[in-house]
Amino acid sequence: MPEAPKNTLKPTDYQLAEKNKKTLEFIENVTTNADEVQKKVLSEILSRNAHVEYLRRHGLNGHTDRETFKKVMPVITYEDIQPDITRIANGDSSPILCSKPISEFLTSSGTSGGERKLMPTIEEELERRSLLYSLLMPVMSQFVPGLEKGKGMYFLFIKSEAKTPGGLVARPVLTSYYKSSHFKDRPYDPYTNYTSPNETILCPDSYQSMYSQLLCGLYQNKEVVRVGAVFASGFIRAIRFLEKHWPVLVNDIRKGTIYSQITDPSVREAVMKILKPDPKLADFIENECSKDSWQGIITRLWPNTKYVDVIVTGTMSQYIPTLDYYSNGLPLVCTMYASSECYFGVNLNPLCKPSEVSYTLIPTMAYFEFLPVHRNNGVTNPISMPKSLNEKEQKELVDLVDVKLGQEYELVVTTYAGLYRYRVGDVLRVAGFKNKSPQFNFICRKNVVLSIDSDKTDEVELQNAVKNAVNHLIPFDATVSEYTSYADTTSIPGHYVLYWELSLNGTTPIPPSVFEDCCLTIEESLNSVYRQGRVCDKSIGPLEIKIVEPGTFDKLMDYAISLGASINQYKTPRCVKFAPIVELLNSRVVSNYFSPKCPKWVPGHKQWSSNKPTRIEEINGKTQTV
What we know:
The protein is an alpha+beta fold. Helices cover 34% and strands 21% of the residues. It contains 21 helices and 24 strands. The strands form six sheets. It has an eight-stranded antiparallel sheet. A four-stranded mixed sheet has the order 2-1-5-4. A four-stranded parallel sheet has the order 3-6-7-8. Strand 19 and strand 20 form a beta hairpin. The longest helix is centred in the middle third of the chain and has 24 residues, at 232-255. Mean pLDDT is 82; it is low at 1-13, 377-384 and 610-626.
């Protein structure tokens, strides 16, 4: 991920070594005094927001101490504050959650009722996010010297945004950051020297943005010392884009021109400031891309690259083998841990193996609490947590410095922007400590069964989608007797696969078009993040249904029992990841069907749309507004 320097830095007084030293001293200081810092953060949040409606509603009465806060304030989920969020979105500017004005909403990749969650934020949060970004490269430079001497090739993109009925912008946190002055007007810093001009990152057309960023990255190939994207899936999409479009990119480099389909004037102008004809470089790229194997293509085209900077924890770990193939085993670096709700922490040992990544929470970012997670170990079942906590469970929460090594917790945050004891939904395991501040492995997002990119589909949502689709089988007197699912990332973009075992009571054969309709109905039933990934971002491929032989799910149960599962407690997993189980299912597939077109998707929330909403669909292979 990119990192922003503080705005106080100027080229004239810039002293890199001194800045790095001060940054590392800051980390040392806040982690050594973690509990004192946390106490101060909570006091600051509560004192500045003492008179907001939400805190008065719960009877905090201006108290700023931890004991009263924990006794009076409930641990909540998004649904608990959704009415307050809706009021703010509809234009109520009174201090409901925060004493400072809500500047915009950050749209979470997590959903509620099929729509993105809206996280309130305030202007000063950009400072806090910039602070966390500014910690990354001083940490990295301890392990990889010379990064200031080259450029970073990062594939960064903005996503669509919408306006709430009250006029506030609602958009993803990274889109907010890239469009802010903190990113656009950042002063000179060798660590934020990227191959992509701002105009290419801020281009709303994802094709033009990807093409122009790749063109600039290829043209400056010798200067690149690190490459990356936000998620592993996004970086792999860039490489697959290169596989498809390299002849046109080579032509542009050879002639010093830019492809006619790149029509954004600001993008063309920014790229042409960089690009000059370079036939020798064009020949080199053409020679490498023409070879049968693309193994190691990153180190072949960008020979000075020292590491790949992408998130490969959680569901993104499924992309590690592909990244290793393309990068010839370069270090895969996860630098930071953040979400729409709050930016949390950094990886202080960035060259560790992906399976060993741990994040040190920075105590100044928010007030952190931790809810112990108790679960049965199982290879297939996701972690499921109760929506609301009873009084005993509320008392189980522990502070940052009181977590226990090896224990798993759900993260709970109180932020400067108006979230109080809010359950983020991430499950973390304590891996160690940096001074008094714990370091956590990211285990998973609770309740999520399927994820390809930033989408998160839970078991209830999947069940409802299947239920809707099965209606297409009723005229044929057929039902789905059992099903499971799998996130298939062997192709790019990855896609959801559902394995269906049918119960056929009728004699009329079911036409393929009916199963295709089932695929589309499932997609139409899934949340807006999934549908945006299909329609607009092209980060998710068409959903697939695989029909398996009768008795397949009995075989699946037999296999699970052979591994030690209890026959009395066994239930069919709604998602499978374990390779032998996927192989078993695939060996019994009798037919398969794909969604015939993209589902409907509308920017913003359904309830914000007018009677005739703008809809985005794929028509003749192109995304169009209809």
